Amino acid sequence: MTALITASSLGVRLGGRRVLHDVDFRIAPGEIVTVVGPNGSGKSTLLRSLIGAVRSETGTVTRKDGLRLSYVPQRLQIDPSLPMTVGRFLDLPTPATGAARQAALAEAGAGELPARQLADLSGGQMQRVLLARALLNRPELLLLDEPTQGLDQPGSAAFYQRIEALRDRTGCAILMVSHELHVVMSASDRVICLNGHICCEGHPETVAQAAEYRALFGSGTGGALALYRHEHDHGHAHDHDHGHDHNHDHGSAPRHDHAEAG
């Protein structure tokens, strides 16, 4: 199967510091890949490198011709005094049809929000709006940079369940960074453990047993991945998001000298 994006021997320096080195990566159509690692391990830099937003020092990145991809950032700072509705936000920079906007919002679980002011949204609602904006592009590959930051575990589980269902319905491949060292959605086909380079990768249960993973995260998590197990016979009606960002480390994972940027 032809890969959507392939990276070979990828290396990145930021501010003179080596952030990534010797990274080999590929993602296939319809695949869900989750990248985990401690703060400063290069997770966000990897995503930005793959889409061409960060210049690589070494190696190559090859994208499928005509690849449609969408990127959902960690957060979006909105001036609270800016009067902008969700519907207007989705029309920037190129207006979408009303039907397309509503379909994207419904797909993202935000169908009731088009008339709401952006400044009034909760964290969970804003994440769903950002997801809807990304879906307007009908992407073949969706990149999510720490999408559950600021959400508690029930809110995170509901978001992961939505992402899994989205892949099942559309066939869209998903590459996601987890801001929690020990939490990976069980729907992942593959987990990549990153700390400046790829320490280990494989199915979540396989990575949980890897010595490299245990060396990084074992002291904080007992060496076990916390896998969200979705109960598909019930829903999550609430956002379960907090009013603050979770920017602290989860666990006492050791830092490595080669991990310089997140």
Write down the overall geometry. Answer: globular
The tally of beta strands, per DSSP, is 11
Distance between the termini: 31 Å
Low-confidence stretches: 219-224, 229-261
SSE topology string: EEEHEEHHHEHEEEEHHE
Structural class: alpha/beta
The multimeric state of the shown protein is: single chain
Our count of helices gives 7
Topology:
Blueprint (H helix, E strand, L loop, with lengths): L4 E10 L2 E11 L4 E5 L6 H8 L7 E6 L5 E4 L13 H5 L7 H10 L15 H13 L5 E5 L7 H18 L2 E5 L5 E3 L4 E5 L3 E5 L1 H5 L2 H11 L4 E3 L34
Parallel strand pairs: 3-7, 3-9, 5-6, 6-7, 8-11
Antiparallel strand pairs: 1-2, 1-4, 9-10
Helix pairs in contact: 3-4
Question: How would you characterize this protein structure?
Answer:
This protein is α/β, with parallel strands linked by helices and 262 residues long. It is 27% helix and 24% strand. It contains 7 helices and 11 strands. It has helices spanning 43-50, 86-90, 98-107, 123-135, 153-170, 204-208, 211-221; strands at residues 5-14, 17-27, 32-36, 58-63, 69-72, 141-145, 173-177, 183-185, 190-194, 198-202, 226-228. It has a 6-stranded mixed sheet, with helices on both faces. Strands 2-1-4 form a 3-stranded antiparallel sheet, with helices on one face. Strands 8-11 form a two-stranded parallel sheet. Helix 3 (98-107) packs across helix 4 (123-135). The longest helix is centred in the middle third of the chain and has 18 residues, at 153-170. The radius of gyration is 18 Å and the shape is globular. Residues 219-224 and 229-261 have low confidence and may be disordered.
